Fold these 2 entries.
Entry 1:
Amino acid sequence: MLNRQKRLMLLMVLILSFGLIRFVLFSQHGMKDWPVVMLVVGSVLLLISFLLKLDITYCLMSVGYLFSYLMGFVFQSDSYDLGGGLLNDLWKIWLISYLSFFVVGIFVDIIAKKRR
């Protein structure tokens, strides 16, 4: 079980990941609002994990923010819309992989609780 100090450390990992992605890596993705949206999503999922006492999910939500961004960055692709504008799917991959971390964490927590 995670104690208070470990939970605060994992929360700081989430906040530092946000700062890294939003400000330091801004030139790589060019998105001003999406990192904030993902931080809100991550905070809500972190709160759900805390309230339901899902320790593994809590850990995955903290480190998953950065790893899911990296997955989006690696697997992103550019395309054109019908009007000729350039589209990039980094944000979709980032969101889907982050939610996948949440789902995997829930399953692992359920399996771990059944084994106890």
Entry 2:
Amino acid sequence: MESLRVLAHISAYTILEGIRLKIADRLMKAPLGEVMGRRIGYLKNIIMDKVEDLEPPLAH
């Protein structure tokens, strides 16, 4: 059973990594003024915190 839980967490974090990479790719393609007009805390909240909120339903 423990190995299934570990596998679920590895899978979840792999998915979260993919989501973060897609967000970063979109930011790189966005107009500079649009990105620079956002507060760093807002971007961090989306990239780290909001994506991390997806972990419990994915891993459990």
